[in-house]
Amino acid sequence: MSHVNYTRWAKYILSIAERNGRKIGTVLDVSCGTGTFCLKLAKRNIRITGSDFSRFMLRKAIGKKSAGTRMPFYVLADVKHLPFKCRYDMVVSLYDSFNYLLDKSDWKLSFQQIYSSLRDGGLFIFDVSTFYNSVYVFRNYVQKEANEQAAYYRKSSFDKGTMIQKTRFEITFATNPKMVYRETHRQRIRMLDEIDRLVLDSPFHIIGRYRDFTFEPGTEASERVHFVLQKRVQADGRIE
Fold first, then answer.
1. 224-231 and 204-211: which strand pairing?
2. Which domains does the chain have, with CATH numbers?
3. Residue range 197-218, pLDDT digits in tens
């Protein structure tokens, strides 16, 4: 995923926290993948835990090193069943990970689990890939990459009827070029007002919905929208 600017993404996420007056010392990255984003925050002396439900991804994450940086702590976990007893200043779930939650019940359960993993007043930031992105950018999209370590291929397709985007991945590693790792991903693309309703039915309070990597309002014309949620505050100012 060399096309993804994780340095920019890390700066953006922290700028959201700063904009909302939050000092971030601990972060949980849900669906952390191979841990690149985790390392970007670790370099900023943030204590970060990464969780993912893919052993393959976590093995890659654990294998990444960064000189002079405290390594992230990685845990095999499903976002719908998080095992953490500690509470974090912020939880993130990036790179359209929430699009992988195909059923509304999965969103509800995930919101509850993440809510329980946050400190009072903590932030939860997640992004979604939009209908616009699927129709105008990634429909029948093909991408190929190769470097000294691996070769990577993916092809995407989108069904407007089911709102399901399928992406087929093929990865070949230089250490074993005859072995091809294949995986098919299915994402449900939801309209933003539907996501708003899911948030309203959750324990969270929505405090921002931003277009791409800006602070402009996220709309259906955006390719990616970041949602910023916080533990709901009662009328007397106390956090629930």
1. antiparallel
2. 6-129+190-231 (3.40.50.150), 133-188 (2.20.25.110)
3. 999 999 999 999 999 999 999 9
Burial group, residue 175, by CB count within 10 angstroms (0-12, 13-18, 19+): exposed
Give the helix, strand, coil percentages of the chain, each rounded to 5.
25, 35, 40
Pinpoint the alpha helices (H) of the chain. 6-19, 36-42, 55-63, 104-116, 131-136, 192-200
Say if CB 69 and CB 46 are below 8 A apart. no
Q: Which amino acid is it at 224? A: R
Total length of the chain: 240
Burial class (CB in 10 A: 0-12, 13-18, 19+), 190: buried
Q: At what angle do helices 192-200 and 104-116 cross, to 10 degrees?
A: 50
Answer for the pair 155, 141: CB distance below 8 angstroms, yes or no: yes
User: What pLDDT, in 10s, does the model give residues 114-171?
Assistant: 999 999 999 999 999 999 999 998 878 899 989 888 898 999 999 999 999 999 999 9
Element (H, E) at 145: strand 142-146
pTM for this entry: 0.91
